[in-house]
Amino acid sequence: MRILLVSEHFPPGFAGGSAVYLDALARGLVRRGHEVSVVAGGPVGVEERDGLAIRRTGSDPAHAGLRTRLRELAAFRRATEETLRRGRFDLVHLNHAWPSLGAILALRGRSLPRVATFYAPYHLEWRAFGGLGRDGRPKLASRVAGLLGYARLVQALERRIFRRVRRAIALSAYSKAQLLETFALDAGRVDLVPGGVDAERFRPCKDRRGERRRLGIPEDRLVLLTVRRLDPRMGLEDLVRATAALRGMRPAPFLLVVGKGRLGPALAALAREVGLEGNVGWAGFVPDAEVPAYYAAADLFVLPTRSLEAFGLVTVEALASGVPVLGTAVGGTPEILAPLDPRLVLEGAGPEGIAAGIERAAREGLLADGFGARCRAYAVERFSWDRAVDALERSYRRALEGEA
To answer: 106 with 19: CB under 8 angstroms?
Structure first.
């Protein structure tokens, strides 16, 4: 099968869940003998990596203003047209709103089957954090855009994308329901292709204390880890407050935050305000090769998300590392955690619910080594990338056979 994959984000040079997800799927397709070409953002150029032919558009998705988005649309249209001129394809796989629209314009007059992946309603993501400044408050341009109906415009554009594809892909039952509700699609046109984990990269550490020593993490504390972009919907303020409320536990919790984002200064200020200094570490951006060591060094991973969690790759990465995960009952998180143990889904959100869940995990043996082994076995069995590629191939075959 000859596949053209269009995506705003694609490694190297791009972090985040969708970039990891698409990269793993694309490389899995290549290993199975498919030909995969990619049109993606990043500095203009053409590259070959892991059997993938990648054409970069020159667009920078870090800047989300309307004028920039229109330039991005034009860049993806040009790059897609050039790729189509240079090769023959059986199917086009669209990802992210503006790149998808550019590709659709390039596909005019062509009968290539189209598949599109749904991550979250773009207009809701924009409302949640896309138009916020570094202080977490709406920027002036975003307030004006809101008055002019920018979110409604993007919702209409997304609707056009998903109504013009043969198959739509969702990462979880939660995101499938969200897709059906937002765009009024026929459920029979939607396939589930969940995320996965590389169980060779993410695995338990034989010498946790030594790993902590190497990373500069306290060796004798209860280490709580989260790996998140520091943005408002992630609920990190709640996790900081919850950790502060647990200072009386023994051993006292130490919160380790891996990631960067616009709320970094505000979160550091909050930690000082609630007296958490000395009990929190800000690792910032961590190179991809080093991330597995942070998982392996932790006792417990906490996912305090407030909204729009289609599928948390960090959740299955932590589980594969033998680290239990506590997550809020938001989005697709309960679908991952509840089959392993319902106690891993926090009964309440906010600082009080998170703190109560951490105390319960310590009290009921969820931090024991034996439970960590269960976490790893579950992740390896249920969330291999091979299983995800199987599901993706099925979706592609349905599209090629004209199922709708």
So the answer is: no
Q: Give CA–CA dist 118/120, Å, rounded.
A: 6
Residue 95: both structure tokens together: 């990802």
Q: How far is CA 194 from CA 262, 347, 359, in A?
A: 28, 24, 30
Tokens of 347: 């009964």
How do residues 89-125 score in pLDDT, each as one tens digit?
A: 999 999 998 899 999 999 998 999 999 999 987 666 6
- Which pLDDT does position 317 carry in this prediction? 98
Structural contact between residues 323 and 372, judged by C-beta atoms closer than 8 angstroms:
yes
Write phi, then psi, for 196 (nearest 5 degrees): -145, -170
Helix (H) or strand (E) holding 4: strand 2-7
Once rounded to an integer, what is the mean pLDDT over residues 333-345?
Answer: 97
Q: Which residue has the tokens 């989260």?
A: 226
Tens-digit pLDDT profile for residues 23-70: 999 999 999 999 999 999 999 999 999 999 999 999 876 655 677 888
Handedness of CA 79, 80, 81, 82 (dihedral sign): positive
Average confidence score pLDDT of the chain: 90
Query: Beta 300-303 vs 325-327: how paired, if at all?
Result: parallel
In the prediction, which pLDDT does 120 show? 80
DSSP label of 127: I
CB 72 within 8 A of CB 39: no
Q: Which two tokens stand for residue 82?
A: 């050039």
Contact 222, 299 (CB under 8 A): yes
Residue 224: closest CA among 201, 249, 207:
249
Spatial contact of 280 and 244, defined as CB atoms under 8 Å apart: no
pLDDT in tens, 203-215: 998 899 999 999 9
**DSSP string for residues in 37-48:** EEEE-SSSEEEE
Cis peptide, bond prior to residue 121, ω within 30 of zero: no
The CA distance from 301 to 335, in Å, is 17
**Cα separation, 127 vs 29, whole angstroms:** 34
- Residue 138: cis peptide before it, omega within 30 degrees of 0: no
Closest CA to 120 of 92, 158, 82: 158
Which of these, 256, 264, 272, lies nearest to 229 by C-alpha position?
264
